[in-house]
Design goal:
alpha+beta; 41% helix; disordered C terminus; 21% strand; elongated; 292 residues; single chain; 13 helices; three-stranded antiparallel β-sheet
């Protein structure tokens, strides 16, 4: 990924979800996507039954972040030391009295460390982390994506026309935005929740924007090669669902079924899959192995 692409991703995410400047954020996101000459999105998936069922029903499979390999993905990050200091100095000042500044920092650090290890706090963080549903797509095709997400090239790559994706997103009231890649996600202040975010007068909408921004923030190493865009569902009725996963209706039009890499994009042949009306597009030099 080029430095220009990384910068556009950062500007787009911060403009909308930090500054609440939608027009500016959309402009940066469009500039980023205009670099995609194919005007396609791709989604690499394993040949699992739930994916086959989703394809048969023309649907997209979304899941809770807890199912991800990266346990830091969508993690809710509190600035615990700042919150502890606020509690001692302002919120419960009468309870603690005057504490010497030289001791305050060390005390805050110790309390924050104990909180991080507290089972109740850990459970709360996990619940908040999983209050969204996510589908990951990309604007690039490469060998590592086939290997990692299509299980060593035995799965499928779903190909979407950009306009179809945007139309579906508008209808379903979802968020679609590029991932912002950073050096160290845990140290990014823009996604940390501090005293201002928890203040009684703080608007809920602002906290939700920060939560969405945190769900769009990933470490540059090893993930920037994936050039990820993310579909997020954070509707209130979804947050209350107890189910692990959720399917949204989507009109899937094009597919690529891959068994060996590389796929030949220039010449494609269409095959009809029995027991379904969906056509899969295969590279003309790829051996066809039926997975149904």
């Amino acid at each position: 990924m080029t430095r220009k692409e990384l910068l556009l991703r950062q500007k787009a995410a911060l403009a909308i979800y930090k500054d609440n400047n939608i027009d500016c954020g959309v402009r940066y996101a469009k500039e980023l996507f205009d670099r995609n000459m194919e005007m396609k999105f791709y989604r690499f998936r394993p040949a699992e039954q739930y994916e086959i069922d989703a394809i048969d029903n023309a649907q997209i499979y979304l899941c809770r972040p807890k199912l991800y390999e990266d346990q830091g993905d969508c993690e809710w990050i509190d600035d615990l030391e700042a919150l502890v200091k606020y509690d001692i100095m302002i919120r419960n000042n009468k309870k603690y009295g005057r504490i010497p500044p030289s001791y305050l920092s060390e005390l805050s650090r110790q309390v924050a460390e104990r909180l991080r290890e507290d089972p109740k706090y850990i459970n709360l963080k996990n619940r908040v982390r999983n209050m969204c549903l996510v589908a990951c797509i990309t604007d690039k095709v490469n060998a590592s994506m086939w290997k990692k997400y299509a299980v060593n090239c035995t799965g499928v790559c779903l190909e979407y026309d950009v306009e179809d994706v945007f139309e579906a997103i508008r209808k379903e009231h979802l968020h679609l935005f590029p991932i912002w890649y950073v050096d160290d996600r845990k140290k990014v202040k823009d996604i940390q929740f501090g005293p201002d975010d928890y203040a009684e007068e703080a608007p809920d909408e602002k906290m939700m924007r920060k939560y969405i921004l945190s769900c769009l923030t990933k470490n540059k190493i090893p993930y920037s090669c994936e050039s990820e865009w993310r579909i997020l569902c954070v509707l209130p009725y979804i947050l209350e669902e107890k189910t692990e996963n959720y399917i949204i209706l989507y009109d899937l039009k094009k597919y690529i079924l891959e068994k060996t890499f590389p796929i030949i994009y220039g010449l494609k042949k269409e095959f009809e899959i029995s027991q379904t009306n969906i056509r899969y597009h295969l590279g003309n030099k790829v051996m066809y192995n039926k997975i149904f």
